[in-house]
Structure formats: structure tokens, C-alpha cells
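Project standup — Tuesday

K.O.: blocked on the structure for the chain from last sprint. Re-posting the sequence here as requested.
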Amino acid sequence: MEISKDTKLCEAYMGKYPVISISLKGINAAAYEDAFDFAVQIMQRTAEEFQFLSDSEYLSEHDKSVYRELLDSNMSETVFCGGLKILSKLLEKHYRLKVILLIDEYDVPLAKAFENGYYEQMIFQDYVNVFPENYWINTSSNDAVKKFIQMSDNLKTKREIETLLAGGEIIKEIHQELIYPEMYQSLENVWSLLFMTGYLTQRQRLDASHYKLAIPNLEVRDIFKTQIMEYFKEGVAKDGDTLKQLCDALKGGDAEKVERLFEGYLKKTISIRDTFVEKSLKENFYHGILLGILGVKEDWGVFSNRETGDGYSDIMIETEDSEMGIIIEIKYAGDGNLLNACEKALKQVEETKYEETLLENGVEKILKYGIACYMKHCKVMCSER
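H.V.: unblocked you, prediction finished:
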């Protein structure tokens, strides 16, 4: 660890103070009673690590009696709520030093309580005195991004997300006084949540509450991309009629209808434009969208980047009866010339003999598609073997 290189700091503090270290990850329950039982078990195990307090010459008999209450599996809510504070004071008396308290996964209990409807029961007064009610701002869960994407159906928000994903900045008002039940009450609150949980960072503070925000790094950007694709696939699965129309059009060689329906999907989803990467990598977004759509068609065999012929096809499909195969090559039209890019895609399918694997599997009818994409537009061409 980097901190170990600071020898003066380590000599001054390492091993010099008593430490209480706990994780609240295990308090994951559907009902308050079960959550409280899990919490009591954690408190009990933590207290058991300091059994020398029972014989400490620095503690009074009353102190020792109070300590023994923390070892009782039937401890009351009152004892539990003050448990960490009590244990800290007893250790401070024993060592005559201040105590360091480390709490990991401290967002889990209230997050699960909020999800399962017993949040109010989990707000203990002593607990709140130790941790402010907006403690959740350091949560490490990706639920914030997931719920944000689910709430971003309006066009303005979609465009703002696209700006962020492209490396740009947006201006937002941030409310830092939110408490847990308010987090998802409005889209404005979720923007604040994303900022305070580190999914967005400030590039500039404009006044007391307005900030220029951006995605901090590639790792966080990947989290946004993953959640966008997951939400998109959920939407595809729910709209079975449009999916059926697209699949029927692909089987029927109706390039015009495939073009219209695929472009419709592109306009619905949030675009992920890799502004600074090579053109070949920009094709990944459109490849991922089409693969996400076709992957919902459970009775089709859909294969991605499969080695066949003299190269790798973008997408290869065997229909449910294995009587038909479909090969799709996707190109990104960086100059906006969709027709030219589409012709190149179809030519690549022809020249590289992608159909060989399908023929070996006994597929007799094979349709070949070239698809070119630019922004939220596409061009589709089809040929038959």
C-alpha cells in the first residue's frame, strides 16, 4: 500500500491505537426482525474479540456488567443501538487511548430496509447520532446508475447522458441534504446521488449548488454502458411485437423493413459514442445493440464474432429450424456515407466466405446482410446465396 511508504506516519500511528473493525454486509434481510437478528450476531461477534475486558483492572464492575450485555444474543434494541459507542468507551478506558472505529459496507442495512419496506424501523436514534442520515452518499452499489438509467426516458436526459458518455460536461443543481427515502423521488435527486456517490465528478463549481459534472474515468463509464445495455435488452424483451417484426423481416430478406425497425431501436436507446477511439471500435456499439436485440430471440442460435471462412463474421444466426442461416456484417460510416459503407459490409461477407460454417451444418438457405450505421441512422442491404 502507498501509505506504508510514509515511514514517519506509520511509526507515529501504526499499531498505536485500539481498533474496532466490523462489516455490515451480512445484514441483508427481507424483514426487520431478521435484519435485527443478523445485526445482533455481528455486534456479539465484535464484542467477543475483546473478552479481556471482562478481567480489565481499569474497568469497574458496572463496566464489566455492561460489556457482558453485548455478549448476550438476546440483547435489546436499546443495548444494540448503543453497542458500538459502549464498546468504544470501554476500550478507551482500558487502553487510555482513543479508539478507531472502522465500519465496512455500512450502506447495506438501510439500503435493504428501503428496498423491502422496513426503512423507518431501521432508523434507530443512537445509530443516527453516530451516522448522519445522508450516510448513504458513500454507497458502492451500482443500483444508483441502474435506477437512473431506468428513469431517463425523457429526451433531454438521454441527450445529457450521451454528452457525458462522449466525454462532455453538463451543468446540474446538486442537493447534498437528501436522506435515503428521497433519493429516487425525482430525477433531480438522482443526479445529486450520482454526484455524491462518485459516479459523476465536478469539473467546476459555478455557485453554492450548481456544478459542471462529468464521468470521472473509464471504469465508471463502463458501468454506465453496461446498465444502458441491460436496460435496453429489458425493453426489447417487453416489446415482443417489434422484435417479432424485425426477426420476420430478417428471415424474409426485407432489407427496407429491417432498416426501418433497427433505426427505430437506435433512436430509442442512449447512444454510446466512443469519440476518441478507432472506427473499428465505434462499430462495437451498433454491434452490441443488434446482438442485444437478437439475443432475446431464445429459439435462434445467435453467434458473435465467430471464426468462419477467411475471417470472423460480426453476427451469425441459425434459425429455430436450422433451415436458414443469416450473416450480418456491421460497418460504421464515419463520413456519413451509409450507402458506401453498406456496400463494403456486404462485399466483405461475400469475399470472406462467412457462409462455410453454415453450409457445413447443413443450412441450405443463407441470407447475407450488410448494415452501415452513423449516429442514429442506418442503411441495410441484403443478398441471398
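K.O.: great, moving the ticket to review. The two ends are 61 Å apart (CA to CA). The CA atoms of residues 31 and 320 lie 44 Å apart.
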